[in-house]
C-alpha cells in the first residue's frame, strides 16, 4: 500500500518543486499508473469521543467505501462499509484501547490494557468536533464492523464514508485564516511563511491510499508518484532502510562468525595435534605393519572432518533452539497485541543453510586436520617405538 | 641366491657432538626358510641391525638387498609396499593397539592391504586359533596376559603370510615357561610355512631355537654357531 499525502508548498518555491495537489484529477491520474489496483482519496479528522461512560479520542479516516475490499481491508466481526452507509463506521481492532472510564482510578495514569474489540461492535460512538470559532458539533457514529487484527497499520483508526468525513472536516476547518491550524491566540506566528495549507474551498484530500497489484509494484509506484510530483511513501520504501540495517547487522554477525570459525579451526588443529602426541605409538605401529602415507592421512583427515561434522550438528541444533527462543519471546514481545497462533519469525533458518553449514563445518574440520595429518605422516616409527 | 643380504653395513648416529657407531661393517646373508638368531649384549647393535635389515632405518653406508632389490635405495612408499606384503614384525613390548580387540589387531596388516572385511576377520580368526587363542578373539590387549599378548603380536606378524619375520627381544618380558611355549609354536609355524625369521635376543637359551646363532659385539659380527633345539 502506498500513501500519497496532500501537498505542502511554500510561496517562495519554484513551480517545479511544488508538490502536486491531491485533487480529483490527481486521483484519476494515479489510478492510470501501471500496476495500480485501486485508489481511494481520504479525509482525516480527529476528535474527542464518547462510548457509553467511557471517553477517548478517535481518528476518523474517510475513504471511498467501494474500494475497501480492493484495499485489502478485512473485518473480523460485523461487516465492511458499503456505498449506502452514511454515519456507519468500521473500527480498527485496537480502537477500543483509546477509551477509558474517567470515573475509575481517576488519579492513576491509565495502564495500558487490551480491551475487547467486540465492546465497540454495534455501538454508537459520539464524536465532538470544535472549530476555530469555538463552535461545537456532535456526530453520532454507528460501528458496524471491526477490522481484522492482522492489519496493524490501521488498528487505531476508524473508517467512515468519505462524504460524511468531508463534512466533518469542512466544519472543523471553519474560521481558519490562511489555512493555518494554530490554536486560537497563536495565529500570527511566523507571518513571513504563511503555509498554503488546505483551507475551506481548497479542494484537496488529506491523503490518498494506493494499492499496488502486487508487492513488487509498490516500490515502482511510489517512485513514479514522486517523479510526478506527489508526496508518496510506502512500506516498500521503509523496507529499503530496514534492509540496509539488516545488511549491516549481517556484516557484523558475519565478522563475529568468521572469528569464531578461526578459533574453532585452531581448536580442532590443536585437538588433532594433541591426539597425535597421545597416539604416536599407534601411528608407529600402523606404519610398521604397512600403513602408507595416504592411509595415515586419510585416517586423520577423516577424524578431523568428523569433529567438524559433530561440531556442525551441535551448532545447528543450538541454532534451532536459540532461533525458537528468539521467535517465541523476543518476537512475541515485539509484536504483542497481535494475537495469532502462528509465531512471528524474526529468526528463520532455511533448509539449504543447514546443508551448507554441515558441508562447511566438515570442510573446516578437513582443513584443520591437514597440518596435524602431515605431522603424523612425518613421524618416524623407529623413534616412536624406541620411546615405548 | 639369498633372500636378504647385508653388505658391509655401517650405521652411525650423531648424538650432540659425538658419533656413535652402532653397526660397524656388518655382512650377513639369510636364505629363504632360515631361522637366524642374533645374540649379543645390550648396546651391541642388535636392534639397529634388525631395523636396518627391515628397511625401517637407512644404513650410513653399505647395502641391504632383499630379493634382489636394494632396499636402502627405495622411496618410502615403495618400502611400505614391501613391509605390507612381505615382512612381519614382532617386538618386545607387543605393540598392540589398546583400543582394538585381538582379532582387529591381527587383521590390521590386511586392512592396509585392502583385504575385504569378512576375509580379514576369517584369516585373523584362523591365525589366532593357530596360536592357541581361539577364545580370546574379542579381548582387548589389557584383558590378556603378556604371553597372550605376544601370541596376538605373532599372529599379526604372520597373518599376511610374509616371506620374512623380524623379531626383536620377543620373549624379553616373559617367564621361561611361557618363553618356551611361544618359541616352540613360532618355530613350528615358520618351519611349516617355509618363512624366514630374523630374531634378536640377548638370551642364549632363546637363541638356541634358531638354526644359526650369530654373535655380535660392538656393532660387529664376531662368530657364528648352529642352534641346538
Ligand atoms: N636413535 C639413536 N640415536 C643415537 N644412538 C643410538 C640410537 N639408536 C641406537 N643408538 C646407539 O647404538 C648402539 C646400539 O643400540 P641398539 O639399540 O642397536 O642396541 P641393542 O643391541 O639392541 O641393545 P639392547 O639389547 O639393550 O636392546 C647403542 O650404543 C645406542 O646407544
Ligand atoms: Mg635392542
List keywords for this structure.
heterodimer, A: 388 residues, alpha+beta, six-stranded mixed beta barrel, B: 229 residues, alpha/beta, Rossmann fold, four-stranded antiparallel sheet, 7 helices, globular, binds adenosine-5'-triphosphate, binds magnesium ion
What topology does this entry show?
The complex is a heterodimer of chains A (388) and B (229).
Chain A: E1 2-5, H1 24-31, E2 36-51, E3 54-63, E4 75-78, E5 88-91, E6 124-130, E7 136-147, E8 158-161, H2 162-173, E9 207-212, H3 215-227, E10 231-234, H4 235-278, H5 280-288, H6 293-334, H7 351-378, H8 381-387
Parallel strand pairs in A: 3-8, 5-7
Antiparallel strand pairs in A: 1-9, 1-10, 2-3, 2-6, 2-9, 4-7, 5-8, 6-7
Chain B: E1 4-15, E2 18-30, E3 35-40, H1 46-53, E4 61-66, E5 69-70, H2 76-86, E6 87-90, H3 102-112, H4 117-130, H5 146-158, E7 164-168, H6 176-193, E8 196-201, H7 204-207, E9 212-217, E10 220-226
Parallel strand pairs in B: 3-8, 3-9, 6-7, 7-8
Antiparallel strand pairs in B: 1-2, 1-4, 4-5, 9-10
Helix pairs in contact in B: 3-4, 3-5, 4-5, 5-6
The complex binds adenosine-5'-triphosphate and magnesium ion (MG).
What do you see in this structure?
- The complex is a heterodimer of chains A (388) and B (229).
- Chain A is α+β, with helices and mostly antiparallel strands and 388 residues long.
- Chain A has 2 domains: 177 residues, no CATH class; 109 residues, no CATH class.
- Chain A contains 8 helices and 10 strands.
- In chain A, strands 2-3-8-5-7-6 form a 6-stranded mixed β-barrel.
- In chain A, a hairpin with a 2-residue loop joins β2 and β3.
- Chain A is elongated and about 110 Å long.
- About 6% of the residues of chain A have low confidence.
- Chain B is an alpha/beta fold and 229 residues long.
- Chain B has a single domain, classed as Rossmann fold, CATH 3.40.50.
- Helices cover 34% and strands 29% of the residues of chain B.
- In chain B, the strands form 2 sheets. Chain B has a 6-stranded mixed beta sheet with strand order 6-7-8-3-9-10. In chain B, strands 2-1-4-5 form a 4-stranded antiparallel beta sheet.
- In chain B, a hairpin with a 2-residue loop joins β9 and β10.
- In chain B, α4 packs across α5.
- The longest helix of chain B is centred in the C-terminal third of the chain and has 18 residues.
- Chains A and B meet through α5 and α8 of A and α2 and α3 of B.
- The structure holds adenosine-5'-triphosphate and magnesium ion.
